Amino acid sequence: MTMGDELPVTSLVLPVLIRPVLTQLEKYDLGASQTLRAALTKAEAAVPGLNYDLVAGIMRRADIPVNMNESLLRLQGTLTETECADLRLNRSEEAFQELNKKSAALKKILSRIPDEITDRKTFLETIKEIASAIKKLLDAVNEVSAYTPGPGKQALEQRKREFVKYSKRFSNTLKEYFKEGQANAVFTAMYQY
Question: Which stretches within the chain are classed as H helix?
């Protein structure tokens, strides 16, 4: 993978891996943390995938084999409320806060997949939880729709259709996994969410 590749995993390196590390750095050097955060955010905006390439390059240079899809998926479930605040909706209405909760719940369930995928019985239960969480998230999106006027409502409906499409694709990937056993395909498919 190189800079600008369109896999969703590239866009998660900054919020899921780098920002939490920079938050820890704030305890020791606030100025350095803020400078790095601003620089890496600006660089990522200018060259999407740069942070992915940076981390992957460091791992290759250190000769540390790592599955970035699996690792980022696990890390996504460990983010604190503060660390993922910029990924949340800021509206105070109950419907928006409920959507935030449902989204976080789905991400938490998805983050368990790397640990549970090899235990078929547990994984099947997790798949049921994912299906339920998706339904609850779509219900929350419908509630938010009532607060969204005109063009915003159209954009929301478009995103909802995309989410349903990705959910179906994920379901098909799971079917393939049970036939072929390719766990990385499951990890990659989950980043569509």
Answer: 8-12, 19-25, 30-46, 50-61, 68-76, 94-111, 113-116, 120-145, 150-180, 183-190
- Please state the pTM of the whole predicted model: 0.79
Give me the residue label for tokens 């099947």. 124
Map residue 2 onto helix, strand or coil. coil
Amino acid at 127: I
Provide the 3-class DSSP secondary structure of residue 122.
helix
Tell me the per-residue pLDDT of 147-168, one tens digit each, with 9 for 90 and over: 888 888 899 999 999 999 999 9
Long-range pairs of 144-151 with CB within 8 A, sequence gap ≥ 24:
144/95, 144/96, 144/99, 146/95, 147/91, 147/93, 147/95, 147/96
Scan for tokens 């981390």, then name that residue. Answer: 55
